[in-house]
Design goal:
CATH class of the largest domain: Alpha Beta
Number of strands: 25
Shape: globular
Largest sheet: 8 strands, antiparallel
Radius of gyration: 26 Å
Bound molecules: fructose -6-phosphate
CATH superfamily of the largest domain: Aminohydrolase, N-terminal nucleophile (Ntn) domain
Structural class: alpha/beta
Length: 610
Amino acid sequence: MCGIIGYIGHRPATPLLLDGLRRLEYRGYDSSGIALMNGDGIKVMKRKGRLAELEALLSEDGQKLESTVGIGHTRWATHGVPNDINAHPHFAMGEDLVLIHNGIIENFSELKEYLVGSGYSFQSDTDTEVLANLILEFYEGDLLAAVTRALLRVEGTYGIVVMHKNHPRSMVVARKGSPLVVGVGKDEIFVASDLAAMVEHTRDVIFLDDNEIGIVEDGEFNHFNLDHSPIKRKTTHIDFSLEQIEKGGYSHFMYKEIMEQPQTLMDTMRGRILDDGSIKLGGLIQHMDELAKAERILFLACGTSYHAGLVGEYLIEELAGIPVEVEYASEFRYRKPVIPPNTVAFAISQSGETLDTLEALREAQSRGALALAVVNSVGSTIARESVGGVYLHAGPEIGVASTKAFTSQVTVLVLIALLLRQQRMGLDEMSVEITQAMRQLPEKATRILEDQSQILDIAKMFCRASNFLYLGRGTQYPVALEGALKLKEISYIHAEGYPAAEMKHGPIALIDRNMPVFVLAAENSTSNRKILSNTQEVRARDGVVIALVTEGDTRMDDLANHTLYIPTTHRLLVPLLAVLPLQLLSYHVADLLGLDMDKPRNLAKSVTVE
Ligand code: F6R
């Protein structure tokens, strides 16, 4: 997704902007550019493709760019194909005013028509250039006033930074629906869409909220509501090190994040399971009465977070006896959802910025649900808009494919399920058993991650397959979905996840000797025993079975072509271990195919468009 960085200070801006853009690369982009205050004008340089293309352009240009004021952008195309012209920054006509923008201006065609009628012409296909010209249309010497007037005409979402040559040491910033944060350093100010872009230089930040606008000037930031009433918000100190967002010696962020999971599981649980097995979740303490009365739980999420929600559904229904619905956030908000009294809605999101999830939560809240969240990114929009919730404490997730966030999300959902159970039934044996098993998870996860030789062998055998099927029952069905999503998004191999018994209602037609089928059978409960017959059905049609079972389980010995083992754990915690070999398999397949799994094609880390 698009990324923003801006700088006003005393150091040369170009290297700082390029560094910032590099740290935003993980969000996904297809072009990049910078604009610098340059003497009495503004210089814009932008290029389609990777940052290296922009750097090449800067060195080709050969000019000494010593400006100490500038903005930079990585664009992920929404309106108009990725090319040099559609890349940001965008000049308004006359090249006095320049704009970078994250988000989408929904009424851009009406605005463009109005501007064309007033004599404006356009170079690009973007909604951003329309906004740049709209600001120019209202400019009468006061940039803040012009941006405000323009934004009052805009429908849609934006995080923007605007510069005008008449104000060589200032820039105007504003946000609605697209994150923006201002970093306050010593005699210098940064603006970014993401903390990662500035954390090397300052950790004292001010988060903008929706419908807020601000003006950054030398060493100073003033910020207002759109009616220009001033906002006084203290800076927040972020405890977030650069090392945390770097690769720490691993070849890829995704691999680092897979390997970090024993630690992140511990971090997610830390301080939340008391010695006697009772659960304490600080972010929910204010809402204990509403949770005690909850008659229905709603999980709103997308992608991997949605799969975590599906695991949560099994957990809460079994442990707390409360009906749960898990909804794709994008679908939920556009139907007319019925929210009965005493509904508690949880948005689940790693980034806390997924627009569909944010809007779904707003929709649920407007219909009377208690709006809570399970989020990783501290200070993100969903975290701030929900009335309470639980942070994952998994640290920044940079790899586009979500891995450690999934296991931390499921861990938090186990904790929430136990909390709801304990409210209803007190601290019983089952709660205590599960919490004891949870404490052993980091060590068991380490064992899985330590020896990858068998997974690597399987990756070598199947990395040229064109299709994969993942089957699971019960809590392992969402893990099958997650395994398939991981494989397709980073290796581009088509993969489907199915409830194992559902296979015979259609997908079985696909099975032949070229179809590897990953069967998740990692526990020996009554329902899961039926997976043996589902596996027979695959073998009877020449399908190749890779089975995942728990150590000591011999049921698949004569059935599967290949068997992987994970340590035993409590039945309800199996997803937390079963997903690890699937993440590793996807990683190794992509690696063997020579693909860049940290930046898979067409994907963005944080999806802030609908
Ligand atoms: C898959 C993946 C995506 C995200 C989805 C939601 O690996 O990363 O499917 O899970 O875009 O993102 P968050 O959790 O940030 O709301």
